[in-house]
Design a protein that fits this description.
Radius of gyration of chain B: 17 Å
Number of helices of chain B: 9
Strand content of chain A: under 5%
Helix content of chain A: over 70%
Strand content of chain B: under 5%
CATH architecture of the largest domain in chain B: Orthogonal Bundle
Helix content of chain B: 55-70%
Shape of chain A: rod-shaped
Distance between the termini of chain B: 51 Å
Order of helices and strands of chain A: HHHHHHHHHHHH
CATH class of the largest domain in chain B: Mainly Alpha
Number of domains of chain B: 2
CATH superfamily of the largest domain in chain B: RNA polymerase sigma factor, region 2, helix turn helix motif
Order of helices and strands of chain B: HHHHHHHHH
Low-confidence stretches of chain A: none
Oligomer: heterodimer
Radius of gyration of chain A: 52 Å
CATH topology of the largest domain in chain B: Rna Polymerase Sigma Factor, Chain: A
Mean pLDDT of chain A: 87
Chain lengths: ~260, ~180
């Protein structure tokens, strides 16, 4: 008998897996064949050795490590739950949707950031302009610099805040130089629709002593159709020491406003 | 409660139940890997990895599948991945002389000469044959169960196991002579 076949039969014989007839055949072979018997003895020994081999025990560390890992996984599970779509088509659809959403959100965020950046840049420029014009208006040594300050307000400022208005009003009322006062008035004229500017212009009419500014102011009041100044115009027409040209302008103003 | 019912619960998010599967299987998986790798410390690490994968990839457990087959398949993959990753680190065969360093004998029950001989001859077998003997002889699994784990036929397993036993016998008695 071929050795491999014999070995296979012997193993089944040892395992008790042969039919009655096969078992008898093997027993007969073992009786008449000494080599087969040795082979049987040896196979039996290794098979029994394997069957009876001691069971290995893992160290206590394995259980500790498992418990730690399980706790971590349970912690992860609380923080984020996996969404699992079935069938695969839904997963693909979800992936595409996420991709589109992600792209959209990314684009939107980038646009928002860009806008915010532009706003910040604009704000920074405005602050810079404001500081520049206030600094120029405040230059006591140079009338031309102060005129330049008022010009900056006229040319570069879109909407004047209280700080700018106050600086311009102060220049219009108190600056020793007529050109500066006129330039300040011209700048304020640009912002005449702002209620606070309007209020300051009306107030200035009663205190203004510079005839040039007075005439320009009266013309502005007419332009603004500011009827609240008629009493003040009346006073100017009768007040002594007021230049005739101013009185004439007040008369014209009164006629136009009434 | 069957292993399969517990695994279903784990799959549905009740991770705490995994400790019951650990209690039932950790020693068997450890023994399988220790006999296969011939290294106890490594076997502990690999066993830990097996349970980590069971939990992490719980979603891939198919409803109705036999849990025992699945966990052994995971264990085989863990073992194979480890050796793929360390291909250059290990030679193709286990160094028999160093074996005793990695498989220290239990202090309370020192191995008999025969058992030492058995381990040295096991080390001389190729991985596949050693694996088949560990499953069928050391772990007393039926050929049907092993065929399921290895995704092959019972007849194929039987032929391979018989060859492995025959080869082991050769090594065993050769070593005994020396």
């Amino acid at each position: 008998m071929e050795k491999e076949k014999l070995e296979s039969l012997l193993i089944d014989f040892i395992d008790g897996k042969l039919s009655e007839e096969e078992r008898k055949n093997v027993e007969q072979e073992l009786v008449r064949n000494a080599e087969a018997f040795t082979l049987y003895e040896q196979l039996k020994e290794v098979i029994q050795a394997m069957n009876n081999a001691a069971r290995l025990e893992p160290s206590a560390h394995l259980k500790v490590a498992f418990d730690k890992m399980l706790q971590e996984e349970m912690g992860n599970q609380k923080t984020g739950k996996t969404v699992f779509f079935r069938p695969a088509f839904y997963r693909v659809a979800a992936a595409v949707l996420l991709l589109v959403l992600g792209g959209g959100i990314g684009f939107w965020i980038s646009k928002q950031q860009q806008q915010a950046q532009q706003m910040a840049e604009l704000q920074r420029e405005m602050n810079h302009t404001k500081q520049l014009l206030i600094g120029l208006l405040d230059n006591q040594n140079s009338a031309s610099q102060r005129v330049a300050g008022a010009t900056v307000a006229y040319k570069s400022v879109v909407k004047a805040d209280d700080e700018i208005v106050n600086a311009l009003v102060k220049a219009m009322n108190d600056d020793p130089n007529t050109n500066v006062r006129m330039a300040a008035l011209e700048a304020l004229r640009k912002f005449q629709h702002q209620p606070y500017v309007r209020k300051m212009l009306v107030a200035s009419l009663s205190t203004q002593k510079d005839p040039m500014v007075q005439i320009a102011l009266i013309r502005l009041m007419v332009e603004m159709k500011e009827k609240g100044v008629t009493e003040e115009l009346q006073r100017i027409t009768t007040e002594e020491g007021v230049l005739p040209a101013v009185k004439d302008e007040a008369h014209i103003g009164l006629m136009r406003l009434s | 409660m069957t292993d399969e019912m517990i695994m279903e619960a784990v799959k549905n998010g009740d991770l705490q139940q995994a400790s019951m599967l650990f209690e039932r299987y950790n020693k068997r998986i450890f023994n399988f890997l220790a006999r296969l790798a011939m290294d106890r410390a490594l076997a502990e690490d690999l066993t830990q990895n097996v349970f980590l994968r069971i939990i992490k990839y719980r979603g891939s457990y198919k409803e109705g599948a036999r849990f025992q087959s699945w966990i052994y398949q995971v264990a085989r993959n863990v073992f194979s991945d480890h050796y793929q990753a360390h291909k250059n680190k290990y030679s193709d065969f286990v160094d028999v002389e160093k074996l005793r360093d990695n498989m220290p004998e239990p202090e309370d029950e020192p191995w008999e000469e025969k058992e030492k001989l058995l381990h040295r001859s096991m080390a001389m077998l190729p991985d596949e044959q050693r694996e088949l003997l560990v499953l069928t002889r050391f772990q007393h699994m039926k050929y049907e169960e092993v065929a399921q784990i290895m995704n092959t036929t019972v007849a194929n397993i039987k032929v391979k196991v018989h060859r492995a036993v025959a080869k082991l016998r050769e090594h065993y008695f050769e070593l005994e002579k020396n």
